[in-house]
């Protein structure tokens, strides 16, 4: 057992550590949710990660994204995350994909043959295609729903997409409807039971389309839950502590 994983080994045992070390996990999206998820997977001892994101670290990321510092502004998120993960575990095997996951640009993911896919992207079209393809290919998938405009990390949880009906989450509503149209009734998701708050837009600013509000302690917690769900799936413990 590697010394740095000795505390994890006390929880998972040698067999669990070997399982995670041999696992290939693809993580799509390295923002507030995905960046924290990536680090949690690395610290848990996952041996191989595919990191997928087309963006660069920007000033507006400083309020919530683990990798965002003044030193990383302007760097591709894939590179910023990779540098941080290698500083934790130099032996980790990383595949960096600086690109968007799109229906017409998705073969790179499935050609890598992941054991698990974790979805921390925002685009509905991409999320739906990902769910379809993972189902068709028999790849376990956990998808994170909206964390914007929320203030209570204790309202975050994981469950089936059917359990999100009473949350009022617009993304969850669209996902449920469109998944049903595609014949997909069930999908493991991370979601919030907190109703989304209305964004506070200054009177002197354009009140049209704008990104959701966010804060330092909600998206990262969703990322840790996403990682936890993934690790439990890899270990065959997905039914524990539901």
Automatic annotation (TrEMBL):
Pfam families (UniProt xref)? ThiF
Gene Ontology BP annotations: cyclic threonylcarbamoyladenosine biosynthetic process
Domain THIF-type NAD/FAD binding fold, residue spans: 11-240
Which top-rank group of organisms is this from? Answer: Bacteria
Note the InterPro entries from the entry. Answer: ThiF/MoeB/HesA, ThiF_NAD_FAD-bd, Ubiquitin-activating_enz
Q: Which GO terms describe its molecular function?
A: tRNA threonylcarbamoyladenosine dehydratase; ubiquitin-like modifier activating enzyme activity
Tell me the PANTHER family matching this sequence.
Answer: TRNA THREONYLCARBAMOYLADENOSINE DEHYDRATASE (PTHR43267:SF1)
Its recorded name reads: tRNA A37 threonylcarbamoyladenosine dehydratase
